[in-house]
């Protein structure tokens, strides 16, 4: 469907909202369950959209969904919509459910290479029609963030895929949903927020990624043949083998302890070695929310480097999974894929 105008004033800035669904636009059905509604619902409940000095157009991915149903095909479609509309709009807001928003924002950060405009994911904990909704404030602020320019140079303030929620603008591939009951649902892991919305919007310019101007490159492939193996005391060989010996597995995020440590028991080592010998790319990510993977700090992680497991530095699990899908999607060559996996591609890690 072509984008339709949501407001009609003579505007300075134009923003495209990509409406995907989520609680922001939900309402209760007869059984008392929250189900997604179309954008009209939101537009009618938000007369303040007209007060913004912006042209806000809306498009959607198809039927609005609860974000628990998001797929890699949806991510590719979001990236394609941004590519198709890139020249026509100054910025983009993706209205999305909170449950998987951090995954989607991370995925889009990888798919959109050399991004020179702002893409802000946002959503809500309470539907727009409820009196205590956070949808209105989140959407209005996300639109302002997407339109933000440097006061002097008038250049794009945040040329990144990011996520705005409650009062924080977070780099998309550093975001994590940490709350399902409160309004402050997202946290920025291992990286400062890019901006804070108080009475004023306060940008943390030093932390915003500025790249030399280059043409946007939109990637079109993600490889879904990946999995996540979370360690816990009591994990058995049978379980590990069941996961790592899946026929066409190409990559696995290993969720380890502390600074990237794992059991040194011989069967576990053998499972990992056999997997890497079969060409499975393993990425070591810590279960800790803060800190980083330091393979070799302890004896219980030194052998992981020897086997060829890539240390994930301070990456989130959400970004790790989508990075693995992305890297395997763009490279059939195992050595190149390994190299890319270890590199900082979009500010998702802070290498030391
Ligand atoms: N289940 C909802 C979703 O992710 C949760 C929300 O948006 N707050 O679509």
Which keywords apply here?
Rossmann fold, 352 residues, 9-stranded mixed β-sheet, alpha/beta, binds asparagine, globular, 4-stranded parallel β-sheet, single chain, 9 helices
Please state roughly what percent of the residues sit in beta strands, choosing from under 5%, 5-15%, 15-25%, 25-35%, 35-45% or over 45%. Answer: 15-25%
Secondary structure: helix percent: 25-40%
Instruction: Report the structural category.
Output: alpha/beta
- Globally, the shape reads globular
How many structurally independent domains? 2
Most strands sheet: 9 strands, mixed
Low-confidence stretches: none
The CATH H-level homologous superfamily of the largest domain? L-asparaginase, N-terminal domain
Number of strands: 19
Nearest-angstrom radius of gyration? Answer: 21 Å
Q: Report the CATH architecture of the largest domain.
A: 3-Layer(aba) Sandwich
Please tell me the overall pLDDT.
94
Bound molecules: asparagine
User: For the record, what CATH class of the largest domain applies?
Assistant: Alpha Beta
CATH topology of the largest domain: Rossmann fold
Number of helices: 9
Major sheet: arrangement of strands? 1-5-2-6-8-9-10-13-14
